[in-house]
Amino acid sequence: MDPQRMAELQLQMRVNQSELEQYVHELNNWEDDIKQKEVQLKKCDRSQGDVAKETSLPPIRNSLEKKKKRKKKKQVSSNGDTSEVKTNEAQKPRRIRSSDYKSWDKFDVEKACLEIDDGETKSSSSEYETDEEWEAERKIKQAEFLKDQGNQYFKDGKYDEAIECYTQGIECDPTNALLPANRAMALLKQDKFAAAELDCTQAIALDSGYTKAYFRRATARERLSKLMEAKQDISTILSIDPANKQAAKEMAKIEKLLNPPKEPVGIVGPVDKSPSQRSKKPLRRMQIEEIGLDKEEEVKRLHRKNVETVLAKQSEVKKQVTARDEATFDAFVKQKKDTPCNSVGSGSVHSSVTPKETALENIDDIRQNGSESPRELGQEAGVLNLKAKSSSEHCTDKEPSPRTSPRLPPVPTSSFQFQTDWKALRNSPEMCFQYFKNIECRHYPKLFGQALDADILPRILSILEEFYIPNNLDMYAVLESLTRVKRFSMTLMFMSAKEKQCLQQIFKHLRTAGLQSESDIASLAKTYQV
Amino acid sequence: MDKPQIILHVQKPINYTLYDTRWIPSSAKFVVVGSYARGTGAIQIYEVSRGEIVLVHEVEKAKPIKCGTFGATANVHLKHLATGDFDGMMRIWDMEATEAPVYSVNAHKEIINCIDGVGGLGIGEGAPEIVTGSRDGAVKVWDPRQKVDPVATMESGDVECRRDCWTVAFGHAYNAHDRCVCAGYDNGDIKLFDLRNMSLRWETNVKNGVCNIEFDRKDISMNKIVATCLESKIHIYDMRTQHPTKGFASLTEKAHKSTVWLARHLPQNRDVFMTLGGSGSLNLWKYSYPPHRCQQDSEGVDMGKMGTLTLHQNVTLSTQPICGFDWSPDKLGLAVCVAFDQTIRVLIVTKLNML
């Protein structure tokens, strides 16, 4: 053998030997130490430590339930096939043989059921480090459940129960913004506006981008006459979601409340008189003075350049339209004469006046209705006015502009079509009535779809009040169908006092008409919250 | 030069069959259990003293005792050995007063092959518990505070396919709630039961009967297990990352050229363990972790990655299988083993601190 290797080996053996000796020496010392320690431990009161330990121990596993075989698994066959795993709950019943009476005696049905119930939660709980986490998760789930329950109560109109559910939910999960927001909704329903405002504030604190909460707070604040704050909320919504129509509408409403529009001077409001009270005198031609044309002057300046081209185009189009409309127009006018008409302002009534005057009438018409957006209407008025003034030679063979055309749109087949027509007919309730009357009740949900907003419903109601009541038409079907439209109850919530009054009027009529049973009307009235 | 040495310190022939041995915590004593030739059980306590072992106490019991553990001893003042015997009885003995058990339960219908304890001696959070595995196929968890009934039972519903449970091990007891039991069966099944969820968390089959399973540590979030099998197989599983379909990553090593009866992790270093072969050989291993224990599969799901296993020492001390081995929890490098050649051996393993 290599002498160097030999020497290495000898060295290693010597090292190992010395290490072992050292270790044995250490071991002997350790023996002495540990024996001393043992004696000391023995001296200590054994039971003392015992008690101290016992008190801090966790409870006996599974001791809350009756001791039983908790879980069994199916053994895998000896060929190593692991695809068959343990039995699951479904196989439980056949684990205990029928002859195994002792086992059956011990078999606890309730516990078995509990185990099945617990199956899902148990399997998912493994990721939680502690019971606290598990508990937290459970509470969040509980809160979700309570929220759903509360929503159900809310739908059923049981607001007290709903509020109770939401309150419990908030206790379980104080971080969920939905719960206080929903409670606010329920509180709004109960006219508890201050509490609703508080809840909304809480919801917003939890989720600053929650537009619904802002909207509800705005509603609450509006009802509490805190208009500035309400306006702020609405502007927050608009900053988050500029396309929010409801908010835009609410904004306009609040603006109106904040700055009540001054009575425009020199404009006579529409006169509401029943046919019997009306003057029997023939219609008299009025000389119309134009006042406050500063806006028109401005517009005139702006449009001076475009006017000629616009008019040229219009006349082109209108010539085509005119011929086609003539027939329907005449028919419509005849029909109109048959039906009592409350709307004095409608341009179509004055079919006998010259086109120039019609145009001027239209201006007034627009002014009367146009407090919502004076600028836009002012512009239109300006254009029309210009047309009337500067191009009277065109006017002689011209019908009124298509916007005010008495042509009745066909019965809509789509929601979009309905909305377009509805907008176009905005300024003529009479037309609206005709148009609306032709729509079959069963088509409402389809036509209104998502769009039964704060604009449509009040208008429908006013049509009902203005036209259906005097004509003794059946409103019940209409009202009943309306309740089936989506978001109906939501829209109902945001109705103004005036509109509610209108509703009451309608139901009063329904009751006096007596076409339906009192109970039907009562239940419908309940749906309408009258 | 720095290779650890396994040195036979003391050996003592005994006149009965030895099955298991355990160090008594906070002492230089160990206990051995076994079976006398006349079919009775033996419990003996020895003390290591100046290069020899001295019999301190012995007691004879009605039935041969197969296995024992101090794992569920409530505190260091008490020296409670939990044993499983050939009759399926699980008993807890006070080493100071061995006449009558402090706890006794008819745990299984047949022999208790294996026993493990946790929650005692400050090892593992939560209540002290004992798990037993038996030839009757059941794995049962016991709480010494509760008489008669186990706190959890894991067994096959189908009587026909109940397998012999050869080994059980506690682990994952890193807080008061989490705890796992890993069981190995004669058909090569390894099953990991989650006691907190009362569910089967994972299972696999290693084709050869599983003689022994041990977690490297009982009182940490499960890190790895070593499973030793018939036909000289050692399997190591990295238990940190469980892949939803592939389970735990594993590594297989062949050693001993015979059944690997036992694997025992060094209490002072969880990555060092000794395996005991059917040929009476002892192998000292060290597991080295890869640079990253977790990698992502093609779908971005985490899966474990295995490191390497190195054999550091290999000696043969007996002609018969070594069936019991225990590292001293108090003295690094001190160990005791018992073999079927009816001999108790106290071993010294040097330079363990240099691994």
Give an account of the 3D structure.
Among the domains of chain A are: 3-41; 133-221, Serine Threonine Protein Phosphatase 5, Tetratricopeptide repeat (Alpha Horseshoe); 316-339 and 349-395; 415-527. Chain A contains 23 helices and 1 strand. Chain A has helices at residues 3-43, 46-55, 101-106, 109-124, 131-155, 159-172, 178-189, 193-206, 211-223, 227-240, 245-258, 294-338, 355-369, 374-390, 392-395, 415-424, 429-437, 444-448, 456-471, 476-482, 488-493, 497-513, 518-527; one strand at 71-72. Helix content of chain B is 0%, strand content 56%. In chain B, strand 18 (210-215) and strand 19 (224-229) form a beta hairpin. Chain B has 355 residues and is mostly beta strands. Chain B has one domain (6-354): YVTN repeat-like/Quinoprotein amine dehydrogenase (Methylamine Dehydrogenase, Chain H), CATH 2.130.10.10. In chain B, strands 1-30-29-28 form a 4-stranded antiparallel sheet, with no helix packed on it. A 4-stranded antiparallel sheet of chain B has the order 2-3-4-5, with no helix packed on it. Chain B contains no helices and 30 strands. Chain B is globular, with a radius of gyration of 19 Å. Chains A and B meet through helix 1, helix 2 and strand 1 of A and strand 13, strand 16 and strand 17 of B. Chain A: Residues 66-75 have a biased composition (Basic residues).
